[in-house]
Amino acid sequence: MSDTKSTPAPDSAHASPGPTELSRRDFLSEVTMGALGVAGLGGAALTYQYFSPNVLFEPPMTFRAGNPDLYPENSVTFLQDQLVYIVRTAAGFYAVSAVCTHLGCITQWKPEADMIACPCHGSKFQPDGKVIAGPAPRPLPHYSINLAADGELLVNKLEIIKPDQVLNV
Amino acid sequence: MATTFHAALENLRTTRVWKSIFRRGPAITNRTRSVAVFGNLFLHWLPVKVREKSLRVRAAYYLGSLSFLLFLLLVITGVLLMFYYHPAAPNAYRDMKDLRFVVSNGVFLRNMHRIAAHLMVLLVFCHMFHVFYRGGYKPPHEFNWVIGVVLLLITLFLSYTGYLLPWDQLAFWAVTVGTNIVSAMPVIGSKVRFVALGGNIVGENALLRFYVLHVVILPLLAFLLIGVHFWRVQKDGGLTVRSKDDDGKN
Amino acid sequence: MMEKTKIESGFSSDAKKEPRRIVFITRNTSAKVKDDRGPELMTYPHLLVREAIVFEVLIIAMVVLALFWDAPLEQLANPLLTPNPAKAPWYFLGLQELLHYFPPFVAGILIPTLVLVALIMIPYFHVNVEGKPLWGEKASKRLAVVAAVTLGLLILLAVVDAWTIILPTVFVAALLVASYFSKATSGWMGSLRLKPLSWWVMTWFIATALCLTVVGTFFRGPGWSWVWPWGTHAV
């Protein structure tokens, strides 16, 4: 408080040369605006945190896909509950996402045309996820697929693997 | 019958209660007619006099006024619908069924709300294009044009958030596709989508968020900006009247 | 010094003795400045009665419509099954049609953002406030520029095979060229010849948006393939 009392009046402040000429009014308004800015940023950050849920009640990302013998060779099986295609080729198994990379519609397996088709904007994919036609920007991702201890297939949708990685059984 | 009704009305106007509500006399002189406008909270943003030219139908085709009327209708029908609606899955869908099959006049209210919503989007677009073609955005109306663009956005958001609320296949996939467009935004896209939906998929959180936006935040914002929009129309000099209209051809 | 610039207001101030500048009127600003206000009518009743009549007509029309046209309600939302076709509300179907041709970032983010920014900035371009016609001065030079831009746009659209955008673009471009060569001084062609560039850009935008929305709403079926609205298709 004693500092503010000893601060010279604005007129004499202009008279005395200094590195920066900042009047008390300008200084206070800058401090106020700065404080408001910091509070605004902090508030925005807190609001963002508040709106990002920490616990989600969504379907689990790992699931068992049953015994490998369920899938005949050279077949594409759509697991509707998980939105995943289990593809078995001569080389082995892989799991392909059934969610279109364009805008998230659920694709459909068309056995007669040997392709995966999206109903929303007409994207078409090969069974291994490569884009044949349409606006889809990326191929369908492959999920990690392994054998559980009891011999069942185990798919982890959180882990995306390269398309050339195939599970041999 | 008509004369007795008229007489009764005249009698009513002489009562103390009526006079306490409407302090001016009957609006038969220009002075009392002026007071009727600027002395009334709900009309005071209107000018007391309007140019004859701006009263012609083709001056605005009533597009702005009708958009506002539709907004009011949407508020009324919307609040009534809220009495039977739970923003939760799958109760929301069951409430839609109830509105159609169980609640008296429920289906009528829902139809009105839906028709008004689609019509409002249409009329707000028409209003904007019409204002553009008439040059209504030119100085001194620049800022009111910007408010109008923001109001168009709010109208679209209002309609879109309302689209999810029935929680049927139509609603779910329209919103899934729409929010996936957001994640095409570079860098922050998927984060924005996650926060907007409150999850990775359109679920309970998304329904509740869209509901709160639809019934509280966006209508309040719209109401506020509509107020500013109307206010500025008068403060910026009234409707734009083209000098071309003077010779009667358009 | 301080005394002279002090603003006095209230009953004591005398505008005749001390004229004060209230407003600048510069060239090319407001149409209202040039315009004499013309005859005026009382808001109450003339405006309010008209508004009330229009409001009543609209409400009656809506009530009749609501009695006979039920809002649709499909099956309960199912995240595991996408209906075919999955469509957004009608006012976004133009965008969805764009999404068919362009990647999501271009059609879903870039184009809408550009349109929005353009709309907001319209009044802040002080170009051609008086609305001088496009085919005024230097008309032949302008025709060359317009033709080059239109041709470039058409080639770009042809590359992505976006013929639902090409169609309205060609239509508006044909009108534009016709208005250049026309000698009409009255009628609709005569008025087209007087339109400024901004009019043409907005008309092109509206024509394109309208065409995209109509095609997206009525002519797109399963897998976003072309269907006729009167034909039935299996889902």
Key terms for this structure?
heterotrimer; B: 250 residues; mainly alpha; Cytochrome Bc1 Complex, Chain C; 12 helices; 69% helix; disordered C terminus; C: 235 residues; 9 helices; 55% helix
What does this structure look like?
The complex is a heterotrimer of chains A (169), B (250) and C (235). In chain A, strand 9 and strand 10 form a beta hairpin. Chain A has three helices and ten strands; from the N terminus they run αααββββββββββ. Chain A has helices spanning 2-6, 10-15, 24-51, and strands at 62-64, 75-79, 84-88, 93-97, 108-110, 115-117, 124-125, 131-133, 142-147, 153-161. With 169 residues, chain A is an alpha+beta fold. Chain A starts with a helix and ends in an 8-residue tail after the last strand. Chain A folds into two domains: 2-51, no CATH class; 62-161, Rieske [2Fe-2S] iron-sulphur domain (Rieske Iron-sulfur Protein, 3-layer Sandwich), CATH 2.102.10. By secondary structure, chain B is mainly alpha-helical. Chain C is mainly α and 235 residues long. Chain C has a domain at 90-224. Chain C is built from nine helices and one strand, in the order ααβααααααα. Chains in contact: A-B, A-C, B-C. At the B-C interface, helix 3, strand 1, helix 4, helix 6 and helix 7 of B face helix 2, strand 1, helix 3, helix 4 and helix 5 of C. Strand 1 (49-51) of chain B pairs antiparallel with strand 1 of chain C, so a sheet runs across the interface.
Short summary:
Chain A is α+β, with helices and mostly antiparallel strands and 169 residues long. Chain A has helices spanning 2-6, 10-15, 24-51, and strands at 62-64, 75-79, 84-88, 93-97, 108-110, 115-117, 124-125, 131-133, 142-147, 153-161. Helices cover 23% and strands 26% of the residues of chain A.
Quantity of strands of chain B, as a count: 1
What does the overall shape of chain B look like? globular
| Terminal residue distance of chain C | 83 Å
DSSP helix count of chain B?
12
CATH topology-level name of one domain in chain B: Cytochrome Bc1 Complex, Chain C
Rg of chain C, alpha carbons: 27 Å
Give the helix/strand layout.
The complex is a heterotrimer of chains A (169), B (250) and C (235).
Chain A: H1 2-6, H2 10-15, H3 24-51, E1 62-64, E2 75-79, E3 84-88, E4 93-97, E5 108-110, E6 115-117, E7 124-125, E8 131-133, E9 142-147, E10 153-161
Antiparallel strand pairs in A: 1-10, 2-3, 3-4, 4-9, 5-6, 6-7, 7-8, 9-10
Chain B: H1 2-14, H2 16-21, H3 30-38, E1 49-51, H4 52-55, H5 57-60, H6 63-82, H7 91-101, H8 106-133, H9 142-164, H10 169-182, H11 189-197, H12 204-235
Helix pairs in contact in B: 6-8, 7-8, 8-9, 9-10, 9-12
Chain C: H1 2-5, H2 31-34, E1 40-42, H3 43-68, H4 93-101, H5 104-121, H6 139-159, H7 163-181, H8 187-192, H9 197-218
Helix pairs in contact in C: 4-5, 4-9, 6-7, 7-9
